[in-house]
Amino acid sequence: MEIIKERLTRLRERMKEHRVGVYVIPSSDCHESEYVCAHYRAREYLSGFTGSAGTLVVTMEEAGLWTDGRYFLQAERQLKGTGIRLFRSGEPEVPKIEEYAEQKLSRDSVLGFDGRTMGAHRAETLIRAAEKKGAGVLVTEDLAGQVWENRPEIPDTELYVLDLCYAGEDTKSRLARVRAEMEKIKADVHVLGDLCDIAWLLNIRGGDIPCVPVVLSFLCVTKEDCIWYVREQIMTEEIRQYLKERGVLVRDYEAVYKDLSGLAAGRKVLLDKKNVNYRLLTAVSGQADVIDRRSPAELMKAVKNDTEIRNLRTAHLKEGIAFTRLMYWLKTGAGKETLTERSVAEYLDARRREQEHYVGQSFAPISAYGANGAIVHYSPTEESDAKIEPKGFLLVDAGGHYLEGTTDTTRTFAMGELSLEQKRMFTTVCRGNLNLAYARFLHGCTGYSLDLLCREPLWQAGVDYKHGTGHGVGYLLNVHEGPNAFRWKLPEQEQPAVLEEGMVTTDEPGVYLEGQYGIRTENELLCVKGENGAYGQFMEFEILTLAPIDLDGILPQEMTGTEKAYLNDYHEKVYRALAPHLTEAEREWLRNATRRI
Amino acid sequence: MEIIKERLTRLRERMKEHRVGVYVIPSSDCHESEYVCAHYRAREYLSGFTGSAGTLVVTMEEAGLWTDGRYFLQAERQLKGTGIRLFRSGEPEVPKIEEYAEQKLSRDSVLGFDGRTMGAHRAETLIRAAEKKGAGVLVTEDLAGQVWENRPEIPDTELYVLDLCYAGEDTKSRLARVRAEMEKIKADVHVLGDLCDIAWLLNIRGGDIPCVPVVLSFLCVTKEDCIWYVREQIMTEEIRQYLKERGVLVRDYEAVYKDLSGLAAGRKVLLDKKNVNYRLLTAVSGQADVIDRRSPAELMKAVKNDTEIRNLRTAHLKEGIAFTRLMYWLKTGAGKETLTERSVAEYLDARRREQEHYVGQSFAPISAYGANGAIVHYSPTEESDAKIEPKGFLLVDAGGHYLEGTTDTTRTFAMGELSLEQKRMFTTVCRGNLNLAYARFLHGCTGYSLDLLCREPLWQAGVDYKHGTGHGVGYLLNVHEGPNAFRWKLPEQEQPAVLEEGMVTTDEPGVYLEGQYGIRTENELLCVKGENGAYGQFMEFEILTLAPIDLDGILPQEMTGTEKAYLNDYHEKVYRALAPHLTEAEREWLRNATRRI
After folding, report:
1. Is the CB of A449 less than 8 angstroms away from the CB of B446?
2. Which of A73, A81, B308, B347 shows the greatest Cβ crowding within 10 Å of its Cβ?
3. If DSSP codes are grouped into helix, strand and coil, which group holds residue A213?
């Protein structure tokens, strides 16, 4: 931990040079990406905290790390001895970063952050805090980068075109739809900062970010032009030709700032302050007028088309086979060899690699045994890698990218004897999961109306999970995607998205008892149309995920007749889909694992 | 219906004089009150539609009435033959009033409405529509009033002070709390337009609006002063003295416009555009700066204090006795005399009048037999008054004002034989009602998260009710009160209110089959604190309403074990509370009516 202290000391020296009293280091690249490549992990370098979400704030006297409920336990462990204080975002009495900054700033001090790695929306909130105290603002110096020794480069990975048989819609058509939406709100220019929106629009994938096959780039769309700002060195002749045919010009990644600052006054520029960085915003807003709202691409890409849906069913079949083989191995082979969290994750990935069109993992797999399962976003490292014994729970949350789409599945396995309390909790989680999956609702519902169907059985049992019930899933993109989600706490700003036919959202309730165990059961739900009659359009879900829910953890007497029917219905579907693809032994085992209760 | 056509003709003559192309007549007084006294029912006079919600829009060529789902059937019936077109608000393809107005207006026509009976928020939306088309705007002429023959006067009813033993908090304390909130948002002046907010703040009740014991008035609060603008002729020496002791000055109702237009420039005026009329807004905004948001009084009055809660339990005991006596009479006496919808409502009110401190009905009672039950806000008239036969459902939705608070209860009674389908629906409604009432939820939930607990059993059965699941209830004020509510469709603008300890909200799912029958079961729920532990503060409900749910409609086999336990628990509570206050015969009957299933 001394190394962290020493890094912070060097940062403070730079802060002093620039009279910076409060320096803020987010976890972002220039696009507010959720996952970032090593080049942009300044917050991790300076704090030692490796979670995907978190912001470090450094003053001359102290340093604080803000992160959310998923990471409280992990952050506590990783910050130990660094002197960095943990701020639990969302807990009562915990100040927001801007409130903390306001408190620490004064008329003769300066607030600093790197304006390229700070989202415009967050930057504006921070700057307002500085203004309230009459403090200065410095956004042009990457002080963290300046003290970072041996900073990794951005990787030069290969670009490829996602064929129409996977994407289901050509870039020309997608561009036309985006332009039609721009027309509606009278936007002259649309600047896209979100890498997944760009990849979706261009049907191009890359590998600039681990687990998210996208390309660091910006896109500017006008009525006539479409310019892709991307690092020239990764461009190939083939891609250039592909783009040319679709009317897309290529310019260098860094040229976007200068180009945008040259926009004529009065031009109306659509951008989303939540995924455009502050430097980019100020380049635009120097002259032009900003229309701050979600890119139309966000909603369009969330609604999967028929080709994508057909493909997704294939992807989930493949993933289901891999998951089921893992479960078969765990249930029939446990005890015969030494299992560890990492060997389990590796076994699963090996089963995936046997499948056609497998691209890679969609996120770092969680394989968490016993008490590790209570750490919501635990990922086993070489040091932590726990040995799995024939008792308690093993929680595996993992996903894959296939050309046919992206998956995200969690299963919790009973590795042997369970206590009655453990079975009760497992059953309650399963009930929540099923009640949501089999919901029937009128069109117009958002995931905020539906969340409680999943959560209520847990709340009745006096427990809660400190994360959302579900998130949208990208198609060979980020496994976490908006705007659809299942949540219970309404966001303060945004209007939640209505659940539309074709949206895919995860359904992943859990129970986490610190120091004891964790349980989570996660399926992906495709929103489909149901009956349309006198009361309006009813909507339902199709469960895409195909893997047994471990009946060794289920107490049938704690489920209603309807809930048992749901579970039986789901297991029958799982068996029917997977059986033809399994060996005789696996199939026999699966028949029992999906038996009626 | 000819009389309506003739009235519209006279209105159009006036419109022509003023070059008005589109004239809008809402259902409002000068306070956007939900119920209005006869003096302000211009929309009813001109359209014949008697529902509480609806807006009439008249052009030279056509006239349209906008109303919501509660009134579709009623409006259809009442508009027949008038030539007025029904616009079903909220249905797809139905334009909003402002969209319709925009379509009808042009550069050389004028949009007109009476700026005093049009809420500021709605007025601004309409004016934006006119501006888009370059049309003029006329807000100073009450054209509807000008053609209204024999327009009723505002009644001169008596004012009275609500004693501290009922209100639980003195005006001085309430004023201090409001001023503290004004201080927080740096408001110099707070103009209150909502009559219930004012009555709550002053602890004064009157009778200017049927069923809502309030006083037509405005209130202006500054750090030092508090001025009540009220019709001088209803002021008494006693009230004047009471107000003086609390630092409240009295000025004439109409003086408010002039006083506010004289505010110094730069003064910050807190008001809620949703309950302040447009003339008042323009008086203020001529010079001063408007802070448009909910009055702090709204949230304060929604959270009932300990005295109010204690009293409410008493009020519900009284109402429960009355409702139970009605049910006893219906169940044991039916067939012995001729029952009609009105005789039932009258019997219930007579039982209430036997109770101490009864003030009056909190709304026009709904007593709807058979197919009339499907008309959500049906109220029997002399002509419609249906004879009740020994079969099918009778739906009674009624409430009373007591000095101990206001009630709102709905029970649906099986008057004899029911079909299996009717019992299924009745059971489903009961399940929805109970699932919400026995919910357990973390503090922070709004009624938008919880609504689906109630609605889902109905949606699973393929039916819906086209109204909210519940509304807040005033204390000897409007039976419908915000900001708490149970709804599934998120509002576009406002942030829904978090359910706080002390809030009272109704829980009233239903099923309405046009031409057949209607079912609704309504209880009032008091929000109370539950367990507070590692997961946060859990909240629960206490059911305030005390009246049996008719077991003749219940199919126990269609309920889960948990749901049956809920119903048994509730019925046990009802029996225990009511039994000591009933006759021997009633008690015996109640024991059976609340038996365990």
Report:
1. no
2. B308
3. coil
CA distance B334 to chain A (A): 34
| Chain A / chain B CB contacts < 8 angstroms | 89
Cis upstream peptide for A483 (omega within 30°): yes
Contact B453 A452 (CB under 8 A): yes
Contact call for B440 and A459, based on CB within 8 A: yes
In whole angstroms, give the CA distance from residue B386 to residue A222.
66
Q: Over its length of 597 residues, how does chain A's per-residue pLDDT go in tens digits?
A: 789 999 999 999 999 999 999 999 998 999 998 889 999 999 999 999 998 889 999 999 999 999 988 788 889 999 999 999 999 998 889 999 999 999 999 999 999 999 999 999 999 999 999 999 999 999 999 999 999 999 999 988 899 999 999 999 999 999 999 999 999 999 999 999 999 999 999 999 999 998 999 999 999 999 999 999 999 999 999 999 999 999 999 999 999 999 999 999 999 999 999 999 999 999 998 889 999 999 999 999 999 999 999 999 999 999 999 999 999 999 997 557 789 999 999 999 999 999 999 999 999 999 999 999 998 878 888 888 999 999 999 999 999 999 999 999 999 999 999 999 999 999 999 999 999 999 999 999 999 999 999 999 999 999 999 999 999 999 999 999 989 999 998 877 778 899 999 999 999 999 999 999 999 999 999 999 999 988 999 999 999 999 999 999 999 999 999 999 999 999 999 999 999 999 999 999 999 999 999
Contacts of B466 in chain A (CB under 8 A): 535
For residue B481 the two structure tokens come to 């009160």
C-alpha distances (whole Å) from B164 to each of A582, B172, B407 are 76, 12, 20
Select from A488, A489, A495 the Cβ nearest to the Cβ of B492: A495
Which residue of chain B has the CA closest to A497? B490
Q: Tell me, what's the ipTM?
A: 0.89
Asked if A488 and B442 come within 8 Å (Cβ–Cβ), the reply is yes
Which residue of A449, A492, A538 is in closest CB contact with B448?
Answer: A449
Give pTM, 2 decimals. 0.91
Q: Collect all residues from B whose CB is shorter than 8 A from any CB in A.
A: 439-442, 444-446, 448-453, 456, 459-460, 462-464, 466, 488-490, 492, 495-496, 531, 533, 535-536, 538, 560-562
Cβ distance A538 to B490 less than 8 Å, yes or no, reads no
CA nearest to B115, candidates B18, B26, B43: B26
Q: Nearest Cβ partner of A538 from B441, B459, B562?
A: B459
Which 8-state DSSP code applies to residue A18? T
No. of H helices and E strands in chain B?
19, 28
Sequence-ordered list of residues with C-beta below 8 angstroms from that of B431, at least 6 positions apart, any chain = B457, B558, B559, B563
Q: d(Cα A453, Cα A509) in Å, to the nearest integer?
A: 11
- Residue B450: list chain A partners with CB under 8 A: 452
Q: How many CA atoms, within 13 angstroms, populate the side-chain half-sphere of residue A245?
A: 10
Residue of A439, A459, A560 lying closest to B441 (CB–CB): A459
Which residue of A452, A531, A564, A566 is the best one to mutate when testing the B interface, meaning the one whose CB has the most B CBs within 10 A? Answer: A452
The token duo for B31 is 């306070």
Q: Whole-angstrom Cα distance, residue A63 to residue A45? A: 14
User: Backbone phi, then psi, for B203, in 5-degree steps?
Assistant: 55, 40
* Closest chain B C-alpha to A376 CA, distance in angstroms: 15
Distance CA B446, CA B302 (A): 14
Q: What's the rounded Cα separation, in Å, for the pair B529 and B442?
A: 10
Indicate if the alpha-carbon torsion angle A288, A293, A299, A301 is positive or negative.
positive
Nearest to A464 among B442, B459, B562 (CB): B442
Nearest to A592 by CA among A341, A582, A543: A582
